[in-house]
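PT: before anyone asks, these are the final sequences, not the draft ones from last week. 470 residues across everything. Please model them as a single complex and drop the result in this thread when it's through.
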Amino acid sequence: MNLSFPYRETWLHRVNPTHKLAVSALLFLLVLLTHDPNVMLLLAVAALLPLALFSGHPPLRLLLYASPFLLLFVSSASGMMMFGSGETVWFQYGLIRITEESFYRGLHLGFRSLQVAAVGLAFALTTRPVALFYSLMQQLQLPARYAYSFLAAFNMLPLLAEEFVTLRQALQIRGGRRPRGLRGLYERLRMYAIPLLAQCIRRAHRTAAAMGAKRFASGAGARTFYYRYRLSAADAGYALYVLASTLLAWQLGQHWPLLPVKSVV
Amino acid sequence: MSTAPASGRATRAGNRLTLADILVTIVVSVVFGLVYKIWGPMYDVLKPLGLHAEQLSYGMWFMAGTFAFLLIRKPGVAILAEVAAAAIEAFLGGSWGISTLWYGLFQGLGAELFFALFLYRKAGPIVAVLASVGAAVASIFIDRYYGYIDQLAFWNYALFVSMRLLGSVVIAGLFAWALARALERTGVTSLLRPASAKDYDALDG
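LR: through. Structure below.
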């Protein structure tokens, strides 16, 4: 993401991309197994810290990227708070029924979404797609056909944007009235989606033919790589941080709870 | 023509994804990955209403799988497309981060299951709808653990599930099928499926 924006490279950028991806994916399973909102709160903090400190992006831009977090927190929490099941009723108005249990479960969901969003944004801001796919080929033996297809597809994004602009200009020049409302929306969607997708498929097919002509798909012989990715000291630091912060969150959350509930299930 | 029918068998044995299949699937998924990313904030704005109006839009996140299968019609395409689109969404800084990869994997599997059930030979609206339901059920399975949705008041839970199923049937099922059929008319799909076994059989007859 944001290849065009300048940023300072930190140790988080030097963590092996496959390692970072695997840890981030496993952290989601950890979240699924966490039912104590105190622990979840600390896990969210543990995920926000590296994002705030080591993303390498300037604070203002970081705040801009993180601006949806608040909305995310509210949107994940509110539904469960108002309509969740529970015994101790705090507030009732029509269909809305806030109970103690549902309130803390809602908060817990808010913390979860913060953690997930922070881990995801930290990954996106500190990992270049090229690095990830090269690393996946080297560390996980991802077949080159898949990895290079992804990289080729990434390179088509600017072309796609250009095509979209061209299409819009063409439609503007041609003018004409389109129906309003839901039907108009569908019409508009159709007018953009079909030419764009058709063009994408044609281009992808041509690219595949060109790659095949250069004997890309033959797969004979061992591949060599322009970029090599290995594990480094940054990986040890990253693994240590995730491990230590997780253990600490579980210990602190259970022994010094901030909220008066132990579990939300 | 005794040589052509042999390739009818051969195409079935060669149901493996070629480089062109993979590349087309992933490029289409990149487009959907962009849509998935844009869809996130919209969903979040609708969500605090609490009555699950946002669930009607959830089906958009299953589209890559069904749509890519309807184009290419080979095993593995639905899973690959869903995972790829989820990966793009994660890369663009989607609100659900890396967890979308898990969702993508499960949703792709849910859709793939139904395509496999018909031995990858059917690509009509019915199988598209079934696949979209498969994807929706898979996503609800993860949400049961992630969102404790089963701990909503019962009426709210039922509303949640039915809205999501309805949304996915309309968007990932019917709309994906209509879009694929419209693309069919542009002729690009002939690049992907130059000639089917049925065409050879027709020559044979």
